[in-house]
Amino acid sequence: VISTPTKSPSSGDPVIGAAAELGIALLVVTARILSIPLGKAPVDVIVILSIYWAISVRYRRSKSWVWMTAGTMAYLLLIYLVPQCRLGYQLLLGSAD
Amino acid sequence: MGILYAVIANAASIQVALLISRKMRPGPASVDLLTVALVRMAFISVTILMSGILGVLQSHWIAAFSALVSATILMLDKESRRLPKFAIPIPRITAILLIVVFARLVAQAWFFAPYDADALSYHLPKVAEWVRTGGFSREMGVDTHVTLPAGFELIETWWVVFFHHDVLIELAGVEFLVIAFLGMLSLASSMGLTERGAFIAAMAYILTPGLQVQATSGLNDSAVAALFLAASALLFAGGPVGLVVLAVGLGLGMKPTFGFAFLGLLPFAFGRWLRDRVRLQISWATVTVSLAAVVTGTFWYLRNLLWYGNPVHPVTAEGLGGPYALQGWPQLGSLFRNIPSLISRIYDRTGAFDAVLTDVSGWGCVAFACGLVASIEFVRSHVPFRWLLASFGLALLSTLTFVGHDHWFTRFTLFFPAVLCIAAGGLAERHFLIQGILAIGCLQAFLLTMTPVHLTGKAIQELIRQPWRERSMAGRYEMSSSADVVGYSSDIRSRPYLLYRPDYSCRVVYLRSRSADDLVEEIHRHKLHLIFALHQTYQGREALQTCLKSGHLRRLSGHLYSVP
Fold first, then answer.
1. What ipTM is given for this predicted complex?
2. pTM for this structure?
3. Is residue B343 less than 8 Å (CB to CB) from chain A?
């Protein structure tokens, strides 16, 4: 059976992981707004995943791990969903027929 | 009578599958069910193959053979008279979701008519010719790809031959989605996921947009992905070698791309063989499934070798040129072009999903958002997952090396999201928050694959409005006619399948002449009164113009011409 980190004893500040991840997300979004390569696909995902990897090594056994993981997933979900929803809306209107 | 024949034949296929599954005793319930689904596919493939070769590809012959098989099993095997039991406790919510997903697939199969250009140009014309002539015919159409392996077309033929109508033809693809689901259940269980986690992973995978759109398109790439998963599941679960061979045979009979991916699994398979010192248990069940694997896996290559002197005709070592190019040999250059392209397409933002996944990966939101992050965690914490990821990674690299770089190569990689969905399912089973994100991803995939891009707007409305007996895309492409015979002359993919009509009541004569004189002679030789002509090359267009000027042809509508 797979052991996931939440079962492990807590050590470290639960807020730090989530705050760090939020910081990275903001950094990437800012980079995208300013058209810096860091915010462009696929660099943004590579950066996000690399930093998640690095941070989750340190905070794997903390309570913030789930929040950090869910935060990273939610961020990726957003950058996937927004253009898709726009496209879906166009299809719904029939303009992409 | 067609419905009765279909019931008899399908009952026999399930009976054979249950019998062999029981004799082979492959393992846990999910592997048992996977075995049943695979053996049923093998029974269908071999039955259609043999009927086609013997020229008895007709519903009554297939039903008679199936009834004979059923009766023999019932007489010789007492256990077959009892209803089988499979102990898979499906969580209630998952069961409801499964019903919703498969009900939608069945509705799509009912309301969609074959629409994809590739399917209409070189996959389905074969099915139409076989069903019309009651056997395998040398005439398969004029497309360059008609001679490629047609294992998937065998299953499509099964869904067509009893009704002599194509209204249920898309169910062939849906069947393979069931195999993909069962393969995922088994594979996820082998990775240590609980039943709940395995169901989440399997559910997330079959909602992968690429798979969903492909399943009802008449194309075979989702079937290849499903068989690859089945082979992987059997290997990782330590299933009987005969069954692994069966999955490989069925896969190779579908498309060579299965072989490209399977190369990635070979190191693991070899390692397992060395570690466990697997012994072949020779039984009649093993021999039967192995024979079925050999027949289905080699038939098309042997036929091409006999007819054209090349097992993969028309592809040579140099590949196949022209507008629909195919690579003939693995090339590192392709790998280096395909990898960055795949990474950029993983966002699926270039366009809506179509059956051939033009410029998108079709991997979907769950694999992208949840799978990538979850894989990082799983790679760290779980050794079997490392093996799985390495094997699938190798399979992905192998596939990307073998296939050329074009707008559609990502459809050959539809097996890879499975490994990402397993990781996502593994985390979601423990954490409610992650479950919520995964559910949003699944919902998005479900909503965006209601109709593929080619069937949005007016197209789907037109299809729904048509009576099921006449449901076809022919009207949309101005290919409708009431003629009994239509000539077809084209040097590009022009969807000749639409000319056959849904009940295959029209005969299509493929015209291969390229000069005006030869074309006129061919038209008169076949006593044609109506032809469909669409040419892209200068020579073809010139011949058509000459025929029009000389009064041998008269334009009707679109690309239909009458012969005065």
1. 0.87
2. 0.92
3. yes
